[in-house]
């Protein structure tokens, strides 16, 4: 189970960020754009499919995720791969579905780097978590999990910045073979221009599907989003930007027992 960010009771969103000096502009010169892969058709069954959204020349991926046509399709991996954002999915339903990968791309940011954690071994029937801290003076603007091995029953339950300093990811292994989990972090120099808006814990009932829209304030751009699940009963389906300011998340409680989650969105100018 991933430790929570500050706050344990359901409540309003709260900003987490650096304070700007009086009279100092927090606007960055960085420009952002969102790109997507082609549509991919995914059939029901254990086989996983991947898609890559490639950033244009002169830009770098800072975050990304899948847009999916069915709540029965679950997220297995979502991480930066070179100049692209790669997602891997599995269709646990009974009918075909489609998906594509999104990437949020930024013009080159001095000090940008992608770092990965050591692999965490996740046994059959277990859960595993992985975190990758950023170096001092940098923040995790994006990141995500990469699952390797016989991962036909891996499902992402959490992927989010943690206390601004690192990226954390967690998966369920509902299969009968072991797998490895690696968290990737996209690290950039920290700045008051980045504001992380998070919620406190929110209840989700057993077997419930929850559709969530996270919105940045007027005049800001959504750089990334995240979700933490308290007890690993909830898996992620949709997890992608849908407008310049907004991300869409779909969470599905795959058990009959209630759980809790909280979300965050990283906004910038």
What does this protein structure show overall?
- This protein is an all-beta fold.
- The protein has a single domain (26-268), classed as Jelly Rolls (Sandwich).
- The protein has strands spanning 14-17, 32-36, 40-42, 45-54, 59-68, 73-81, 84-91, 97-107, 113-116, 120-122, 127-133, 138-149, 154-162, 166-173, 179-189, 195-198, 202-204, 209-215, 221-229, 234-243, 246-253, 259-268.
- The strands form six sheets. Strands 1, 16, 17, 19 and 22 form a five-stranded antiparallel beta sheet that branches. Strands 2, 3, 5 and 8 form a four-stranded antiparallel beta sheet that branches.
- Strand 6 and strand 7 form a beta hairpin.
- The two termini are 33 Å apart.
- The relative contact order is 0.22.
Whole-number radius of gyration? 17 Å
| Low-confidence segments | 1-27
Number of helices: 0
CATH architecture label name: Sandwich
Q: How many domains comprise the coordinates? A: 1
């Amino acid at each position: 189970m991933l430790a929570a960010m500050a706050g344990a009771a359901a409540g309003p969103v709260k900003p987490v960020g650096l304070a700007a000096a009086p009279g100092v502009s927090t606007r960055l010169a960085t420009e952002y754009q969102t790109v997507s892969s082609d549509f991919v058709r995914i059939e029901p069954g254990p086989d996983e499919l991947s898609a890559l959204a490639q950033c244009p020349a002169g830009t770098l991926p800072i975050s990304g995720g899948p847009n999916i046509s069915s709540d029965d399709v679950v997220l297995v991996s979502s991480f930066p791969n070179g100049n692209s954002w790669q997602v891997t999915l599995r269709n646990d339903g009974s009918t075909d579905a489609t998906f594509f990968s999104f990437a949020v791309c930024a013009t080159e940011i001095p000090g940008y780097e992608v770092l990965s954690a050591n692999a965490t071994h996740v046994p059959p029937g277990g859960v595993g978590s992985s975190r990758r801290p950023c170096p001092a003076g940098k923040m995790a603007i994006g990141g995500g999990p990469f699952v390797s091995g016989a991962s036909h029953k891996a499902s992402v339950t959490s992927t989010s910045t943690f206390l601004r300093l690192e990226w954390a990811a967690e998966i369920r292994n509902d299969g009968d073979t072991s797998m490895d989990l690696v968290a990737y972090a996209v690290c950039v120099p920290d700045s008051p221009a980045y504001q992380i808006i998070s919620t406190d814990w929110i209840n989700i009932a057993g077997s419930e599907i929850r559709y969530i829209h996270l919105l940045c304030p007027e005049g800001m751009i959504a750089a990334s989003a995240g979700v933490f699940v308290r007890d690993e009963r909830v898996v992620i389906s949709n997890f992608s930007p849908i407008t310049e300011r907004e991300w869409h998340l779909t969470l599905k409680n795959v058990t009959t027992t209630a759980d809790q989650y909280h979300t965050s969105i990283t906004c910038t100018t």
